[in-house]
Amino acid sequence: MLSLLWACDKKPPGTTPVAAPPGKIIVTLYPSQEQQTIHSFGASDCWTAKFVGNWQDEQKKNKIADLLFSMDTLKDGSPEGIALSLWRFNIGGGSFEQGAASNIKDEWRREECFMNADGSYDWSRQQGQQWFLEAAKKRGVAYTLGFSLTPPVFMTQNGKAYNATGGTRMNIKEGMMDAYADFLVKVAGHFNFDFLSPVNEPQWKWGKADGASQEGTQAVNTEIAALVKATAPKMGNTNAKIVVGEAGQWDYIFGKNEEGCGDQARQFFKPGTPIYIGDLPQVAGIISAHSYFTTCPDAAAIATRQQVRAVAEELKPLQIWQTEFGILGNICNQYSGAPRNTGIDYGLYVAKVIHQDLTVANATSWQWWLAMSPYDYSDALVYINTPSGKTDVPGCKTDGIVSDSKQLWAFGNFARFVRPGMKRIATAQSGKQGSENILVSAYKDSNVKKMVVVLINPQDREEVVQLNGMADQLLDIYTTNHTQNLKHSVSKPRELRLASKSVTTVTGIYR
């Protein structure tokens, strides 16, 4: 039976399985068999940063920033944080200024807008988010991305930050596309973003007549292309590249062209199509989508990601980015968004999704949704409770208790160690029956001959692994399980012990 890695990657020619001692799993690394180059791992500031970033307690804010961005280590050698390499900044549409009149009931999900209706700008807005943006930069986060969910409210057809029509069209007034493009470029230039994502989940119908849960607008591909073509020529004075897609789920980028909002990879990046934008120098050769609703069962998850990889191969050198994920809704009756669950089973699920997106879809960047949250929901990395310890959203507005999650640390098994520019390499497994249940991916930095191997053991028992291809010296081991968070230890490559229900990252020199 093939591992999930080998469901897509082919075994290097001329290799034979290595005989394994009884009860031991052999993992063989093939550094010369390079796959994709990793760009980044990221998360977004929605929506909690607006309030938490304005807390008076700098120590608590810095604790959150350290958990998300720090490359430092504790005295025992364990990481202080997960060292994200990309930070997503939500460019607000102005629902916050509207207050209750926005018809977005939850004030935490309203956002300020830097632009006023008269065309002037107020850069003092979104101060909480600006605090975290600066905190990310101070801690060495390599990339920043600004993303927009809606045009500013004074540019929309209904004067709201959501589209309640139930249709497919963008919520923007006739003739305002160019003004929207000006706004996006102005914000991207002011904050010196590396990337600009102008449309988010355009396939979903945002809002109803009585209101919406957040800012957002649907859009068809022709509108997205028109916005990109209006934006691109204005970006000469910025360093940002445009990233398009942000599809609500994977299949919208290779098919599922319902209502003119699918098949995005070919529509945008195949030369000769009516809305081709791949020749615009300001547009990154990247198609992005979200991993929601495509993670189970395993066979369907793999088949979907194989099609993602296939369309990228067809349109080489197009890159694949997974740009939003969290635990949402009912997932095959195994996991659920509500109530909040921060245990190791949910961490293992997150690690498995990352593994599939990297090894089957061949994604070069993987990004989370809510970096921090006060909600009784499982879609965040860092959680906020009230000062008294309760789960109560309004009670966290000015102060609170900060806590972590296994989602955070399992994500960190990748983000903290697989750094921008590293290349994923091929691996193979043999030995103990059932070894296919151990998910393995490996990454190399050829400049320093460093290897990073991430092993996911979802089973309720310890497994013993022998790593072939690593130098025969002590390796650094970082384990996340029900009691440990990237806990540091050392091991020889021939006798690596994987704790039950764990995500383990191994770093060392390869031969």
Give an overview in words.
This protein has 511 residues and is α/β, with parallel strands linked by helices. The chain has two domains: 24-37 and 422-509, Golgi alpha-mannosidase II (Immunoglobulin-like, Sandwich); 40-205 and 218-415, Glycosidases (TIM Barrel). Helix content is 21%, strand content 26%. It has ten helices and 21 strands. It has helices spanning 49-52, 58-69, 95-98, 127-138, 177-191, 221-231, 264-269, 298-314, 344-359, 406-415; strands at residues 24-37, 40-47, 86-91, 143-148, 195-197, 241-247, 283-290, 319-324, 330-331, 335-336, 365-373, 380-385, 401-403, 423-431, 439-445, 450-457, 463-468, 475-480, 487-491, 496-498, 502-509. The strands form three sheets. Strands 19-18-21-16-15-14-1-17-20 form a nine-stranded mixed beta sheet. The chain has an eight-stranded parallel β-barrel with strand order 2-3-4-5-6-7-8-11, surrounded by four helices. Strands 9-10 form a two-stranded antiparallel ribbon. It starts with 23 loop residues before the first strand and ends with a strand. Residues 1-8 have low confidence and may be disordered.
